[in-house]
Design brief:
By secondary structure, the chain is an alpha+beta fold. It contains 6 helices and 12 strands. Helix 1 packs antiparallel against helix 2.
Length: 245
């Protein structure tokens, strides 16, 4: 499947400045990028693999899921608190302050904005599929429109949802799966009750449309097994995923 990225005028085809990104989904794995793409991203086993064709390297980013990022910050706060408890009296206040500052910073970073979803009476068509518009609001301001189709009405609909679910587990999962940046927050629980596949996502800011993402050209089938393999002869570099991804 492919996703058309911003900017796109509502109801239009691909316009200059837009891009098309191929997605492949199979058995809990997701690949972003076609064969011979400059950069390919594999998501499997709670790990991100970034394949760079130009440098012939594979960057392995473990600890990149949202739950692992949360655990990392909790562990860092715990270490600072332990250090504060063991510090000399003169240094204890400064160590406690560092632990408190990190705890507050991580809480702000991981906080999820209150969101409200409402079904509208508007219907549209995306790639020949009828879908219904839902609106998402944050702090009483519309941020998203999502055109949702029943999974059974879209070829491979259940596989698409599975891929979105896989990506949602990773840091910035909304940006990966929907083209919308939700920060570190996990958006998937909010979308479960929409009851379908979001074929189109419009993002608004200050009342104006700033971005549109469309799901199109869905082709059910069995991807080649080689799509999930790391290329032979490439240099493998393991990085701390929570800080890079």
């Amino acid at each position: 499947m492919a996703r058309v990225s911003p900017p796109v005028t509502p109801g239009s085809a691909v316009t200059p400045g837009s891009s098309v990104t191929p997605y492949f989904v199979e058995s809990g794995k997701v690949r972003i990028g076609a064969v011979n793409a400059k950069a390919v991203y594999l998501f499997k086993n709670q790990t991100v693999y970034v394949i760079d064709e130009a440098s012939r390297t594979v960057r392995v980013l473990p600890n990149a899921t949202l739950s692992q990022v949360v655990a990392h910050y909790a562990d860092a706060v715990r270490q600072l608190q332990d250090a504060a408890a063991a510090a000399a009296a003169d240094d204890r206040a400064a160590a406690e302050r560092k632990a408190s500052d990190l705890k507050q910073a991580s809480a702000r970073l991981l906080a999820s904005a209150p969101r409200a979803y409402a079904m509208t009476v508007r219907f549209e068509s995306v790639d020949g599929h009828a879908c219904r518009i839902w609106e998402e609001r944050e702090s009483d301001e519309k941020r998203l429109e999502l055109c949702v189709a029943p999974p059974a009405a879209v070829a491979g609909g259940s596989d698409i949802l599975e891929g979105m679910h896989v990506l949602s587990a990773f840091r910035q999962g909304g940006k990966l799966a929907l083209g919308v940046d939700f920060g570190l927050a996990d958006w998937w629980p909010d979308l479960l009750h929409l009851g379908g596949v979001p074929l189109l996502i419009r993002e608004f800011k200050y009342g104006s449309l700033i971005r549109e993402v469309t799901l199109t050209s869905v082709h059910p089938g069995n991807p080649s097994a080689s799509l999930w393999d790391l290329p032979e002869g490439y240099r493998v570099e393991e990085r701390p995923g929570y800080s890079e991804w």
